[in-house]
Amino acid sequence: xxxxxxxxxxxxxxxxxxxxxxxxxxxxxxxxxxxxxxxxxxxxxxxxxxxxxxxxxxxxxxxxxxxxxxxxxxxxxxxxxxxxxxxxxxxxxxxxxxxxxxxxxxxxxxxxxxxxxxxxxxxxxxxxxxxxxxxxxxxxxxxxxxxxxxxxxxxxxxxxxxxxxxxxxxxxxxxxxxxxxxxxxxxxxxxxxxxxxxxxxxxxxxxxxxxxxxxxxxxxxxxxxxxxxxxxxxxxxxxxxxxxxxxxxxxxxxxxxxxxxxxxxxxxxxxxxxxxxxxxxxxxxxxxxxxxxxxxxxxxxxxxxxxxxxxxxxxxxxxxxxxxxxxxxxxxxxxxxxxxxxxxxxxxxxxxxxxxxxxxxxxxxxxxxxxxxxxxxxxxxxxxxxxxxxxxxxxxxxxxxxxxxxxxxxxxxxxxxxxxxxxxxxxxxxxxxxxxxxxxxxxxxxxxxxxxxxxxxxxxxxxxxxxxxxxxxxxxxxxxxxxxxxxxxxxxxxxxxxxxxxxxxxxxxxxxxxxxxxxxxx
Length: 522
Prior knowledge:
Helix content: 25-40%
Shape: globular
Strand order of the largest sheet: 5-4-8-1-9-10-2-11
Structural class: alpha/beta
CATH topology of one domain: Arylsulfatase, C-terminal domain
Distance between the termini: 36 Å
CATH class of one domain: Alpha Beta
Largest sheet: 8 strands, mixed
């Protein structure tokens, strides 16, 4: 076994006593296994997390995680879509390998998963919150999951015993469940891995009634490329995720009025709005009715209308993040008050990023930075000496092997991700760390009409191929064009870098055994 592999297996298990003995040939003290709290949200983007970007909102409790550990500046996903991203987490494999390529396919829970391997090595495992894999959880000692997308208010949860109905706001309820499991339901003599998956900040961004008034006096700046005309990017021009054209006034922005008829109006009125109990509905209507009346009276058109939609979207999204941040604080406080921080790693991330008006969009799916990237911060015990920024390229297929390494479990050879522990052990990147990332989005035809595409990202460049019903390439120099507006593919002077990137793209497709290479050879 190499020294780096040995270190990955023994370093994090206890404090300095174990570390000093590890790899020396001396008899080490019996390690205390690390607990893992893995928190994942839905569609939370780095732009709306203040340790990454402080232009819009403050997230002091999420920032606490980074301040007491590390923040990954270049964390990305393998497939920017909820279900597939979750499958990548659990398996450490790309979508084509784990079988969950889109939101419609069913995840095979009989395959090898991180919770299965942890449980086999003595860990208790719990899954609470959003699952979204179209099959029941497997290899969890405890699970309570939202059916499908779940609901913001008075949600139902699925359990092994059947459906259970709860009163209240979903972010509070999921946190309550997590704390209750930690306090009352687990065996405190065993190490644990708690997967706490929040619904926030998924569409349609319904805030807790306690936060309805927040951000109403804030005007959010438009992104510089809000009025993108998609010149030179054919696939971008064909999407259906435009704030102007595709954001629903009723479902997304809560304009429920007889004079406003939209595609999703009934879905909202008879769905999420109908779930409000009388007290919640009274608070909801008190806040929204003046906004509705003012909007209908204004008769906005053109740029005034689309910019009004953007402001409502940003405010509603930000309100859901406030609830999330407060609940993250509650969980961190519980761990601190119960002296659990010295043997617990807290990981926070999202299933992908999201567009907050960049390119005029909401939603995700594209390989452009805002949705390809994801927040990733870790709160670490003091035995880990790394603190601050980590700039190496990492991906959500790395999360499963990282958890296994934290637990001292050997990483199976078929896992495609890499443990992140070497990045936590030294100020310098380990020799041979990856220099490129592979991405593949599969869901077309599908919601928002984003074409199938795969691509590669290096530190400086990104090459994307849109394929299937379209054959278009895009090349971006992220150093000179971080907003990805100027497609350099086919322009003179870029032939050499295109050839290099295609060669690396092919290498990754072979390494990850993506069958797309057989049908669309490079």
